[in-house]
From TrEMBL:
InterPro entries the record matches: Aldo-Keto_reductase, NAD(P)_OxRdtase_dom_sf, NADP_OxRdtase_dom
Keyword Oxidoreductase part of the UniProt annotation: yes
Protein name, per record: Aldo/keto reductase
Keywords: Oxidoreductase
Domain of life: Bacteria
UniProt key word Oxidoreductase: yes
NADP-dependent oxidoreductase domain boundaries: 14-309
PROSITE patterns registered for this protein in UniProt: PROKAR_LIPOPROTEIN
Amino acid sequence: MSTTRPLGPFHVSPIGLGCMNLSHAYGAPPSTEQGRALLHQALDEGCTLFDTAALYGFGANESLVGPVLKPFRQRITLCSKGGMAGVTGADGNITRVIDGRPEALRRNCEDSLRRLGTDVIDLYYLHRWDKRVPIEESVGAMARLLAEGKVRALGLSEVSAATLRRAHAEHPIAALQSEYSLWTRNPEIAVLQACRELGVALVAFSPVARGYLGSLTDVSTLDAKDIRRSMPRFAPATYAANLALLAPVQALAAELCCTVAQLALAWLLHQGEHIIPIPGTTQAQHLSDNLAASRITLSAAHVARLGEAINRHTVQGARYNTATQAEIDTEEFGQGA
C-alpha cells in the first residue's frame, strides 16, 4: 500500500485527521490546550491532511486549527468547507444555516481564511448542497474563488453521483466527502464508481462509525448534546442489536493484533486507492492507532469476512433522522447501511 494518496493536485497521508471532534458535535469538547496538543501529535506522526469547516463550533474549530498548522502550511493539505455555517440572529443566537448562494460562499470562504490565518485554503468543499440553488451556480462561485487564489481545489460533501457529475462539468472536482464505513455503505451505490471515472478522491468521514467501530459500548453515557442521540442507529435497543454484530470483527482484530478501529480503517483503504479516511478523535492513543492503520495489510479473505459481518443487510437503523436526511443529496439504501 502506498505511503501517500492522490487528492486533486496534492498527495496526502493515507489517513487524515477530521478536526470536528475538537470543537463540535459530540458534547463538551476538549480544552484548547488538549486540542492543540492533539494537532501537534498528528503532525509529529506524519499526518498531512487536516479537515475543518466553518460550521464546526461556529468558527471555533478553524480558529483552533489555523494557528497550530500555520508554521507547517508548506507540508500539509488544509481543507475547509462553506455553504453551511452559523448565522447570528437579531436575538444574538447562532443558528446553523445551509446557504449555497454565491455571496454566502464568498463570505464563508473569506471568514474561514481569516480564522485560519492563511492566504489560501488547499481544498474547499461545499459542505451541503443548498437545493434552492443550482449546483452549477454554487460551484461556479467556488471556481471564482479558485481563480482569485483564495482556494486551490474544489470539493463537495454528501452529494449523489448525479450531482457530482453536474458539478464536475461546471468545474473539476477534486474530492467528494461522504460518510463511508463498514456500517455505512451508501457510496457503494453509485458514488464510488463516479469518483473512479472522474478521477475524484472519496474522502470518508466517520470511518469508524462515530465510535461504533471504536470504543462506544454504552449509548446511555453520551452527553445530552451529543448529535448521536438524534441518530436512529444509536437508539439504545437498535444500538444493542448492532453491537452484537461486532464479535467476528473483534475476533479478526485479535488475530491480526490490531484494534477494531484500525481494522475498520484498513478495510476502507483496501476498497480503493482513491479513498482517504479522515477519522476524528480527542484521544492521543486513538490518534496514534488510527494513523498506524495504514500499515495494516488485509488479505482478500479478511476483507470479505469484514464485509460479511457488517453491511447494509445486517446493520439496523437509519443513519440520520428524517429532518437531517432531507438536507442531504445522497443515494441511500434505507434502514440499513
